[in-house]
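Deliverable D5.2: sample structural annotation.
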Amino acid sequence: MSTTLRQIEVFRLIMLTRNLTEAARLLGVSQPAVSQSLKELEAQLGLTLFVRFGSRISPTGEARLLLPEAERLLGQMGVLQGRATELRDAGAGSLQIASMPNVAACILPAAVTSFLKERPRVNVKLNAYVIREVVRQVRQEGADLGFVYAPVDDPAVAIEPVIRAPMVCVLRPDHRLAARTEIELTDLADEQVILLDPLNTPGLYLHRRIEETGVRIRRVVETNLSFAALSMVRSGTGIFVTDPVVLLSGLGQGLVIREVRPTIPVDLVAIYARQRPVPRLSVRFMAHLKPAALRICEMLREMGCEASVGQGDA
């Protein structure tokens, strides 16, 4: 039978009190239980640790030499237990997040800031990827939590809706369509239009809707970088059709934002790996993201976009 931490704790308390009865009281057990534990420890170590003189006991030289090691071991166990408590209560540890660039830049920072105020000892790692790589990172446990646009056609990940918002047109105030309260896809037929790459989910939605409506847009600039598209709008290249998340960067300031008709809703979702329990820190982060998402929806509504939290056919 191997030595137990309980036996070492009994040994240390007897060394400190030099009294079996007092050691038993401190441990909340009977004196015979302490005596038995000490007897078993001595048998396992092959050493006599205490010499008894009637009702008194005195430590041997071997016991004095073992005491520092016993205290070191118990101290390490205390550190281990404290660390486990922190992790159980999500007070420490690490959180790895994978996200699309727009979301990483425009939505997550406020949630990360709030989260770290509550848990300053947590290490957060936020990396940006294209959508399929975000899904792969979560599926293969390279990330605890991911943020992408729905749908996510991968049975290995579970989803949680975050924000639903419609796609919008971004144009200069001096553009001929700027006076409109909303813009029909048919209005774009003769315009220079900046479209998102169809490998990007909002871009795919838009390309599909254009095909469904039969609109033939004659002049197209295609990009996978929303920030570049906004700069092109500002310089007069054309109209940018996008999900409104990038507008939270402030790069759309001074530009006109109009919803597209027919409406093209886009759902931002959080994703988790199905094959393991959702990490505690991921749950806590999502609790901080929801107030941030509410504020973001308010900002989008001020821009004229109908946005909602945690809804959609994700």
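Annotation notes: The domain at 5-88 is CATH 1.10.10.10 (Arc Repressor Mutant, subunit A). The mean pLDDT is 83.
The annotation will be released with the project's public dataset once the embargo ends.
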